[in-house]
Specification:
The chain is of the alpha/beta class and 353 residues long. Helices cover 39% and strands 20% of the residues. It is built from twelve helices and eleven strands. The relative contact order is 0.12.
């Protein structure tokens, strides 16, 4: 039997993604090259490792067994590389991290400072959603992950390094913008744009509304923070988002963060890795940097309160709307229902008196 590390790496990537295409992207190889590695491995082992059902592939029973050993072998190789790298100290090395999509608003600032201290470090940064972050943790693909809440089904070592307040966001011309101490119950009349199922922000929103016994009307489901910000600006609904994600929009008066009671929803940013993982000196140094210095560095940035105060003097005084302005008046989004009669045709609205 002459199994190679390249074959095991290709097999593990395909097993993790259950996709030859995505495995090829991860390994920076062509799909035929990945397929060839799998065929050679199956030939060496004399066992089929994958089976195809329709358009999807699945691990066979043998594939599940090989996956366990492949993980262990590749982890030992990784530990060997880490041990050898440690002999060279912090002068060179590679740092592989993945961050939640919202964290990319501040992660580059921290990486810039860290790389200035250790100029020989090569950084690999992946910005992705929570589902992929959990998968990368589970399969030990990266050195560490930055996200808003540790996963429940993966054994990790995690540490909170900074607060992550979630704030209500609205269009700049929303009526809430000119009010103070808004009662939470008034949110029951608004439509909310939400992230995809499984998102940490969405779970925090749902829990918050449930705890306060306020119904939440869900509008569009949007897959990115940028899309939510643009949709809120367009008046399609309100949103709840990390304070770190909206600083520019607040200062440019593109969005507002109304003063609603019980906000912000306080969460934290965590740095984490698989429990028992042997971190390289560079990875350990970056973890210590986050836990000890990140909050102090980023707290020097303009805060949400500062941004809101910058907006206040620029707000125009309230005026009675002119006929032309009335046409541009903010109208909150509402779910639309069409009533039909027995013939299936829409019932026209009742005539106005």
């Amino acid at each position: 039997m002459h199994v190679t590390l390249r074959q095991l790496e290709a097999f593990t990537a395909v097993a993790n993604h259950l996709s030859f295409t995505r495995a090829a992207e991860q390994l920076n190889l062509s799909q035929p090259a990945v397929s060839m590695q799998i065929k050679q491995l199956e030939s060496q082992l004399g066992q089929a490792l994958f089976e195809q059902m329709g358009k999807k592939i699945h691990l066979t029973e043998s594939g599940h067994e090989v996956r366990k050993f492949a993980r262990s072998i590749l982890q030992q190789v990784d530990d060997m590389e880490t041990a050898l790298t440690s002999l060279s100290g912090l002068e060179r090395g590679t740092l592989s991290i993945s961050v939640a999509t919202t964290a990319h608003y501040f992660a580059p600032k921290l990486l810039k400072i860290f790389c200035e201290r250790y100029p020989g470090v090569n950084v690999k940064l992946d910005v992705t959603n929570r589902e992929q972050l959990v998968s990368q943790l589970e399969n030990n693909i990266v050195d560490m992950v930055i996200m808003g809440r540790p996963p429940e089904n993966v054994d990790v070592e995690s540490g909170a390094f900074m607060e992550n307040p979630l704030v209500l966001i609205a269009p700049a011309d929303h009526p809430f913008t000119r009010e103070k101490s808004i009662q939470l119950k008034r949110l029951a009349n608004e439509v909310f744009l939400v992230r995809e199922v499984g998102s940490g922000t969405r779970k925090a929103m749902e829990l918050f509304f449930t705890q306060h016994n306020i119904p939440m009307i869900m509008g569009m489901e949007v897959s990115s923070d940028e899309a939510i910000k643009r949709s809120v600006q367009a008046g399609l609904g309100l949103g709840i988002m990390s304070r770190d994600a909206i600083q520019n929009e607040l200062q440019l008066n593109l969005l507002s963060a109304p003063d609603v009671l019980h906000f912000p929803i306080m969460r934290h940013w965590y740095v984490m890795h698989r429990k028992g993982k042997r971190l390289s000196p560079i990875a350990q140094a970056f973890k210590d940097f986050l836990l000890q210095e990140a909050a102090g560095i980023l707290n020097k940035e303009p805060t949400l309160r500062d941004a809101a105060q910058l907006q206040t003097p620029q707000m125009p005084p309230l005026k009675a709307p002119t006929p032309s302005a009335a046409n541009n008046k903010y109208a909150p989004a509402r779910p639309k229902y069409v009533l039909t009669g027995p013939d299936g045709k829409p019932i026209p609205p009742a005539p106005r008196k």
